[in-house]
Specification:
heterodimer; A: 416 residues; mainly beta; Porin; 2 helices; B: 72 residues; 39% helix
């Protein structure tokens, strides 16, 4: 299964910009309900980071993350996909090395990331820079990364998209050169995907208790972007999904925080608008409240709602089956369908500061984080429901119940 | 959905416009608190984004770390 990594590269870059002497380990668990009697989907995501200052002006970060994914997946996108659910397992490993240079009012950092899983190789390099403008109330940041990934696909030779076969779990995706995939003629080929990502941020102190961040994000993906395993039922055939090679996307977000000294609490609101060349138009709003209880306990509550409209080439499965594709392309990707989701959650942080003696003899500050999320998902109809006698309830194998997934995470962060 | 874009732009402009010209260093006690830092837990953010990018088509653009005290 291809796990999407591209947006995380920029997060890794930004994380490296905040480097200081620190060590962090965390593990998160994500469990999603799926229909079809094959069980749910479970993702276990451990992470570890070690950051150290090399002198006054240089810092080094080493970051590792993994994904262990298992559970049910959708074999064919069709009006009744639930009966065709299958199971799978996959493990991804990813490592990042970051080098940061810090000045009095500015910082620059560079990083490289390599990730590998059975059918996907990700490689990226990037850099970011930020500077405090005079007065130190305004910070401007820039980040850029270039990813040159490879995706394992079925070797379909000269077959047309409507004849193409999908990759299956038994197909050999050979990584003979470790960092590069090696084709197995007649069985599998590795296809390139380049990802260029840029982001600029403006962070502004508005008052002694309020600040604002505005972020403008852009990304261009060029290359093979289909899920090689996914099939779409078109008429009586079920060829491999076929989506465009080029996608340009951008988003604008604003994030504001307000501290309430008397209550020892802070509120935040975030709004984001998203648009891309595939026709996906979306946005989300998040509200949160962070409350201190004494010096050592911090509890945060948050809620988020997200909605998007479908890609122009997405159709409800019934119409792919009974009519035709919407132009050249066809997909059964839930991420490209009309979707609304809501999530609520809470995060508890226990803070221990070594005032006289280091915590555990090593740390100046130690934080234990425990987080829990509940997610609710609504799959919306894309096409006329009055002309769809089967409906859209069974075209995906996800979330037939009110709560479709839960997330739990546990993390320990130490500064030394 | 385009209304959300307009609201974000107008709200951001209004907020910046209403902001004081300068917050003195001695006034940054609350801005330096970890709850006022944008993305104060990058690991947590990356885990959440990881889940969302497999459920939502609109990836990326959540901003960056830093902020708060404005002390790079």
């Amino acid at each position: 299964m291809r796990l999407q990594l591209a947006p995380l590269v920029l997060v890794a870059l930004v994380a490296s910009a905040a480097a200081e002497d620190r060590a962090e380990v965390s593990t998160s668990l994500f469990a999603e309900k799926r229909e079809g009697g094959k069980g749910g989907l479970t993702v276990i995501h451990p992470q570890a980071l070690f950051g150290v200052d090399l002198g006054r002006f240089v810092s080094l970060d080493l970051d590792y993350a993994a994904d262990a994914v298992s559970g049910a997946t959708q074999a064919i996108y069709q009006a009744d996909a639930i009966s065709m659910a299958t199971t799978f397992k996959d493990v991804r490993h990813e490592g990042t090395v970051g080098l940061g240079f810090h000045g009095r009012r500015s910082r620059v950092s560079f990083s490289g990331t390599f990730g590998t899983e059975r059918d996907y190789i990700s490689r990226s390099v990037g850099g970011d820079a930020s500077i405090d403008l005079p007065g130190r109330n305004t910070t401007v940041g820039l980040a850029y990364s270039h990813g040159f990934d490879q995706v394992c696909d079925k070797d379909n030779g000269m077959l047309t998209p409507l004849e193409s076969k999908a990759l299956v779990g038994d197909d050999n995706c050979n990584k003979g050169k470790v960092f590069y995939g090696t084709d197995t003629p007649g069985t599998t080929v590795w296809k390139d995907l380049s990802i260029d990502t840029a982001q600029t941020t403006l962070t502004q102190n508005l008052s002694p208790t309020m600040n604002l961040q505005i972020a403008l994000f852009g990304q261009i993906q060029e290359g093979f972007q289909s899920n090689p395993y996914r099939r779409v039922k078109i008429g009586t055939n079920a060829p491999q999904e076929h989506i465009p090679d080029t996608r340009a996307r951008w988003s604008l977000s604003a994030h504001m925080k307000k501290f309430f000294p008397v209550m020892k609490a802070a509120a935040h609101i975030e709004a984001r608008f998203y648009d891309d060349t595939w026709g996906v138009l979306g946005g989300n709003v998040e509200l949160g409240w962070s409350q201190y209880f004494g010096k050592n306990l911090l509890i945060r509550f948050y809620g988020r709602i997200y909605q998007q409209q479908a890609a122009t080439f997405f159709k409800d499965a019934f119409f792919y089956e009974t009519e035709a594709t919407a132009g050249e392309y066809f997909t059964g990707d839930r991420e490209l369908s009309p979707v609304r989701d809501v999530s609520i959650g809470s995060k508890l942080t226990i803070i221990t500061i070594g005032e006289d003696h280091p915590v555990w003899g090593l740390f100046d500050k130690l934080q234990l984080n425990v987080r829990g999320d509940l997610m609710f998902l609504s799959v919306l109809a894309n096409d006329a429901t009055s002309e769809n006698p089967i409906g859209v309830d069974k075209q995906f194998i996800y979330g037939g119940s009110l709560i479709d997934s839960v997330g739990l995470s546990l993390g320990l962060l130490g500064n030394y | 959905m385009h209304a959300l874009f307009v609201v974000i732009v107008l709200a951001a402009l209004a907020a910046v416009g209403c902001g004081r010209q300068a917050v003195r260093a001695s006034e940054k006690q609350f801005l330096a608190d970890q709850v006022m830092t944008f993305d104060d837990d990058p690991h947590d953010t990356s885990a959440s984004d990881h889940v969302r990018t497999n459920r939502e088509g609109a990836a990326g653009g959540h901003g960056a770390g830093g902020g708060g005290c404005g002390c790079n």
